[in-house]
Write a structure and sequence with these properties.
Order of helices and strands: HHHHH
Number of strands: 0
Radius of gyration: 11 Å
Strand content: under 5%
Shape: globular
Number of helices: 5
Length: 75
């Protein structure tokens, strides 16, 4: 992940947390849906690692939201 994109990844992570909690879903459950380890979900949410567009879309599908909502900063 390029350092100049850290704020974007931070926004994505915060949005994943928001929608995951709204769906009453744990990191473990999201990880199961994506076939990823819970620790990897945690790293995505904390913006420690970047994610691909495919992963972003898979996460959006798991959370029942449109992918663009994960990119949009909250007011």
């Amino acid at each position: 992940m390029k350092p100049e994109y850290h704020d974007i990844y931070k926004t994505i992570g915060l949005n994943i947390i928001y929608y995951r909690n709204k769906n009453d879903m744990s990191q473990y459950q999201l990880g199961d849906f994506l076939d990823k380890d819970q620790s990897h979900i945690s790293k995505i949410e904390r913006a420690v690692v970047g994610i691909s567009m495919d992963t972003l879309c898979d996460i959006a599908k798991a959370l029942n939201v449109e992918p663009y909502l994960l990119l949009k900063p909250k007011d």
